[in-house]
Amino acid sequence: MPRRLTPRDRCVVIGAGGLGHIGVQVLRAIAPAELIVVDRNPDAVELARSLGADHGVVADGGQVEAVLDLTGGHGAEVVIDFVGEGGSTAEGVRMLRRAGDYHVVGYGEDLVVPTIDVISSEIGFIGDLVGSYNDLCDLMALAARGAVTLHTAKYALDDFRSAVDDLAAGRIRGRAVLVP
């Protein structure tokens, strides 16, 4: 869980897909910060906006500059990266303000940051895998009151190839689930 976010803070969420769309809803329910969502897919950005994100930025090459513009050139207090690949880590670090926290959830590439940049900017890196039992209880409470809903596309087990193809092509908003 990110540090306590205040109404003066900004939080960037990179990736509004499977897990990211849940993260946006949780953040909206528990944090008063301004939420900025970045995703390559315009439909995922629109889904995030409909779920409570204050701003949506399509990752089209100008996403770092767009986030910096939205934050007055300072960057966000917290960046949560649900992608962790395809350049998102380098871009996410550039979206972070001085003394900010970068939460890595997604994985797939190396996080490469010169140590002098970490020290001189006083930024922190936090790896988040699944959360605690209490985090799960909190998520279930939010879901029970309708503050968090799962957007899913269901596929039969024998139609798994279509699920994989749809995920690869960016046609899934939310999560893809295989059912018997």
Folded structure, characterized:
The structure is a single chain. With 180 residues, the protein is α/β, with parallel strands linked by helices. It folds into two domains: 10-144, Rossmann fold (3-Layer(aba) Sandwich), CATH 3.40.50; 150-180, no CATH class. It has helices at residues 20-30, 42-50, 63-70, 88-94, 115-121, 133-144, 160-168; strands at 10-14, 34-39, 55-58, 76-81, 96-104, 124-127, 152-156, 175-179. The longest helix has 12 residues, at 133-144.
List the helices and strands and how they pair.
Layout: E1 10-14, H1 20-30, E2 34-39, H2 42-50, E3 55-58, H3 63-70, E4 76-81, H4 88-94, E5 96-104, H5 115-121, E6 124-127, H6 133-144, E7 152-156, H7 160-168, E8 175-179
Parallel strand pairs: 1-2, 1-4, 2-3, 4-5, 5-6, 7-8
Cofactor: Zn(2+)
Domain Alcohol dehydrogenase-like C-terminal: 18-144
InterPro entries: ADH-like_C, NAD(P)-bd_dom_sf
How far the N terminus sits from the C terminus, by CA atoms, comes to 34 Å
The biggest sheet, with number of strands, parallel, antiparallel or mixed sense and barrel status, is:
6 strands, parallel
Helix content bin: 25-40%
Class from helix and strand fractions = alpha/beta
The number of E-state strands comes to 8
User: What is the count of structural domains?
Assistant: 2
Global outline: globular
Q: Quick check: average pLDDT?
A: 93
Determine Rg (CA atoms, Å).
16 Å
